[in-house]
Amino acid sequence: MQDTVQSEAASELLQRIRDRSFKVGVIGLGYVGIPLALAALRAGFEVLGFDINPERVAGLNRGRTGLKHIGGSELEAAVAAGTFSATDDLARLGEPDGLVICVPTPLTRHRDPDLSFIVTTVEAIGRRLRRGQIIILESTTYPGTTEEVVKPILERSGLSGGRDFYLAYSPEREDPGNPHFETASIPKVVGGDGADALRIAEALYGAFVVKTVAVSSTAAAEAVKLTENIFRSVNIALVNELKLIYAAMGIDIWEVVEAAKTKPFGFMPFYPGPGLGGHCIPIDPFYLSWKAREYDIPARFIELAGEINTAMPRIVVEKLAQALDERSGRGLNGARILVIGAAYKKNVDDMRESPSLRLMELMEERGATVDYHDPHVPVIPRTREHAALAGRRSVDLRDGSVATYDAVLIATDHDDVDYNGLVRGARLIVDTRNVCERNGLRADHVVKA
Question: What pTM did the predictor assign?
Answer without folding.
Answer: 0.90
